[in-house]
Amino acid sequence: MREKKALIVLAAMVLAAAGGIVGCGSKVSNANANATAQPTPVDVSTTQAVVKQIPTYFEATGNLAGDASTDVAPAVAGKIVEVNFDVGSFVQKGSVLVRLDDRDARIRLEQAKDQVEQQKKAVNQAIAALRQAQVRLDVKDGQTFDIATFSQVKSVTAQLTLAEKELARTQHLFDTGDVSKSTLDQRRSQRDALIGQLDEARSNAAVAVKAINSAEAAVASARSGVATAQTQVEQAQKAVTDTVIYSPMSGSVSERVSDPGEYISPSAPNAKIATIVRTSPLRLKIDVPEASIGKVALGQSITLQTSAYPDRNFAGTVARILPNLNVSARTLTVEAEVANGDGLLKPGQFATVRITQSKPENAVMIPATAIKAEGDINKVYIVKDGVAREKIIQTGLLENGLIQAKQGIAEGDIIATSNVNTLFDGVLIRQMN
Fold this sequence. Notes:
This protein is of the alpha+beta class. It folds into three domains: about 45-55 and about 360-430, conserved putative lor/sdh protein from methanococcus maripaludis s2 fold; about 55-65 and about 275-360, Beta Barrel (Elongation Factor Tu (Ef-tu), domain 3), CATH 2.40.30; about 105-240, Orthogonal Bundle (Helix Hairpins), CATH 1.10.287. It has helices at about 1-35, 105-135, 150-175, 180-240, and strands at about 40-45, 45-50, 50-55, 55-70, 80-85, 90, 95-100, 245, 250-255, 265, 275-290, 300-305, 310-325, 330-340, 350-355, 360-365, 370-375, 375-385, 385-395, 395-400, 400-405, 415, 430.
């Protein structure tokens, strides 16, 4: 009986010991579980929000357009034998776009050159005839001829003067009875004959003068023929030159309507072969609200963004201001010139425009890497007492890696700048810097 009681007591003691052991194991497991449940801090780099002066601006909308656009058309008709461009290609000013068949034009050019040579020979012949006429009267180019100085006229005039004197003397002698009437009649007949010879000499001189005038007119006509023929050569040369169609400006081809073998003519409707648009610089047509008209002036700087490049700003300058408003929209159209050397921007794109004002303003700036974008929402995490506090902000100007925080951030706030995509409100932070 005593042995049975001893066994019962021993069994109770073993169970009690086993319970104590189990109890101790449970306490250890709970301690480990509690240790595992502690949150792990996120390692981040941080920086302070700073206040800087930034340019002030107001926003507007605009559309990009080509600085110039031209339809290229032929100056002469012909069959296309070569096309050196395609839609979308960039062409330099003066580069060959199209070549036409120039064989007919070259034939006409050779004919015109032959005509010039013929007219030059005609000039030489007319000059030779003029020299012969001038020799007869002993005159040179530009001299004025007096019929009285013609040699034949001078000789007959001298003889006539002598005959007049002889007649007068004979008449006096006849009146005194010293000579017979037959002698007087002889002297008168001699005088009358010389008068006829003088008229004939004058007539001959007039004929010679007329010959000179006719020869001079022939020379002038022949020279005019040379000038006319030379004009025909120039026209024929131009026709040959016009068979090569050059680009009138540098730009991109927006339309091509020509192919080899096609016959084109400037007289045909819509005779263009291509449309070229100059895309650098571009024109940005900005719609400025009526209330902001006073904030715009020539020479102002602008920046623009497009949906195609949301993270990139493009710069420009206000170049033109239209004189009147759009009555229905109550906006003023302003044109800015935007450099586009790399060709990223395209005519027709819509843009959001910021027009810079002359007076800067203070702005809270933070690193752009601190922004956590979720759709249209931008979040920033302020580090305070080792904990990340989420702030939803509006952003503004982006400059040199810093972006303007328009609200929710104050100067001196500690901002997380790395691992921001893993952060959330209330998470523990371990600053690496």
